[in-house]
User: What shape does this take?
Amino acid sequence: MSDQSTEFTRLPETDEARDDPERATRQEVLDFWAERFGVPPETFEGYTFWERGAGKLWLYQGSPPSPVDIEGLGMTFLRTRQEHWKPTLEAVQRFGEHASQNVIHLDADAARAFVAGEDQELDWDGDWGYLVVTHDLAGEAEPVGVGLYVYGELRSQVPKGRRREV
Assistant: This one.
């Protein structure tokens, strides 16, 4: 029997295929990205979703057999099994360019503070919750990370080890 901490199991496609009612399905993940960020489901064609541990989802381009007993598989993607699902920094940096809603664009000073891990008061007339944070890089709006917007404050979700002073 494999160690649960290293075993990746593929997400079931739909609710009908799920054994554990707490476990996310591929369809729920696609719906989350479409409803929260406006990312079209076809963006994830060719990718498979995997769970390791309770609610730690990974994304992999391809389809190895399930379960897989390895240390890493693709990229960390989404945290589920909590009240509000949280996309990872890697997922937003890779797929945030496809987002059409719940995207907040920061100017240079606000972006500097954000990547340094600072929380900041900002006006935002959109939904509260997790946002795709963008900033202009080389003349294009590029996703830089995940922010949590509540009570008039954008809270940086950049992990401590990834924060930078720029």
The mean pLDDT is 90. The chain has two domains: 7-96, 102-162. The chain has three helices and eleven strands. Residues 102-162 form a domain with the Archaeosine Trna-guanine Transglycosylase; Chain: A, domain 4 fold (CATH 2.30.130.60).
